[in-house]
Amino acid sequence: MSVKVGIVGVTGYTGGELIRLLLNHPEAEVVAASSRSNVGNPVSAVHRQLFEYMNLVECEIKAENYADCDVVFLALPHGASSGMAKELIAMGKKVIDLGADFRLRDYDTYQQWYGAEHAWPEALPGTVYGLPELYREQIKNQQLIANPGCYPTSIILGLAPLLKKGWVKLDTIVCDSKSGVTGSGKSLTQNTHFPDCNDNMSAYKLAAHRHTPEIEQELSALAGQPLLISFNPHLIPLNRGILSTITMQAARTDLTQEMLDAAYHEFYDKEEFVRVRSKDSLPCTKLVQGSNYCDVAPVWDARTKRIVVVSCIDNLVKGASGQAVQNMNLMMGLDEGMGLRYGVMYP
Predict the structure, then answer these.
(1) According to the model, what pLDDT value does residue 62 have?
(2) Can 294 be counted among the known catalytic residues?
(3) Does the predicted TM-score (pTM) go above 0.70?
(4) Exposure pattern of 289-318 as b/e (b: 16+ CB <10 Å)?
(5) Neighbour-count burial for 256-265, b at 16+ CB within 10 Å, e otherwise
(6) What is the mean pLDDT of residues 320-335?
(7) What is the pLDDT averaged over residues 210-217?
(8) Annotated catalytic residue within 59, 69, 150, 294
């Protein structure tokens, strides 16, 4: 079986990462790619690491140019995917949206946080959220998948076992997350300009980050009731990586470190891409770099009766393109880990 793949918005970091992963996928072939800025030129004109490795010429961003594809990845800014997705689905294609257009099931919430036009709002309630560890069976055989955001992936996977157990006081969750600069995309801003971000660390969009409702939507589903969180994102001078340190008050005071470890192993031991670490070997960005792993470790603070969870991913892989390939494999009936099994880039 050879899956013919298209990528819309290929010139960004996630587009380049998709190319890297798919070129090493034994059952996938990239047959179409497009962007607004590189039409008529080879993909390698922008992704210079592909020089003499991939010479596919970019086409215009039109659904008709993806007629030969089985699966199309949309790596576009928010508000730009919904119309294209609707056209591609009507053509019988499978679509994985790496943007934010289909992550929120409620249209009013989407308007509140994104304020963008949506060409297909009626699709929102039924779109499957593409976090395989939670929605594997729903992802299979779907036509449209909303690929999760990078921060949400780290936080949701970090908290899922605890919320399922009911071990958390839901109004006490604080998520302190730090991201490398690629999480902001390729467009240069004041915060991502080298003199500003190098040798610096800064908080941004406190109490206002657009990933907040996505995180709350999925955590509420796990908890079985609505909840709100405090989400505090930070920019750090790394190329890749997200590390989330999540703190909360325990709903029971008799917890032990052994109980936490057992709960996480029970929840994730059959998951290939989630690795449960220990409080003596905490996750760090270097140990997931370039991989599709999410490393998690729960820690019991007996003194304060609080739980601390450290969760770590590569924002471009498990936080974006790797997870998208994982979803493609499930949608197409392939081995879920195909094209994603390779060593971590270390050091």
Answers:
(1) 96
(2) no
(3) yes
(4) bbbbbbbbbbbbeeeeebbbbbbbbbbbbb
(5) eeeebbebbe
(6) 98
(7) 98
(8) 150
**CA-to-CA distance for 176 and 230, rounded, in angstroms?**
8
pLDDT at residue 29 greater than cutoff 90: yes
Only one residue has tokens 């076992």, namely: 161
Structural domains of the chain, with CATH = 3-126 (3.40.50.720), 151-315 (3.30.360.10)
For the chain, the average pLDDT equals 96
What lies within 8 Å, CB to CB, of 173 at 6+ separation is 159, 219, 227, 229, 230, 246, 247, 248
Calpha distance 93→87 (Å, rounded): 9
More confident residue, 153 or 192: 153
Strand duo 144-146 + 94-97: pairing: parallel
Distance CA 225, CA 124 (A): 20
Q: How confident is residue 192, by pLDDT bands cut at 50, 70 and 90?
A: confident
DSSP, res 149 = P
CB of 79 closer than 8 Å to CB of 113: no
Six-digit token string for 101: 């257009």
Give the helix/strand (H/E) hosting 298: strand 294-301
Burial grade of 134 (CB within 10 A; 0-12, 13-18, 19 or more):
middle
Task: Name the CA dihedral angle for 8, 14, 17, 23, rounded to a multiple of 10 degrees.
Answer: -20
Task: Report which DSSP code applies to 34.
Answer: E
Calpha distance 20→339 (Å, rounded): 10
Distances (CA, A) of 88 to 91, 110, 224: 5, 22, 34
- Of the candidates 136, 323, 112, the one whose C-alpha atom is nearest the C-alpha of residue 212 is 112
Phi, psi of 327 (to 5 degrees): -65, -40
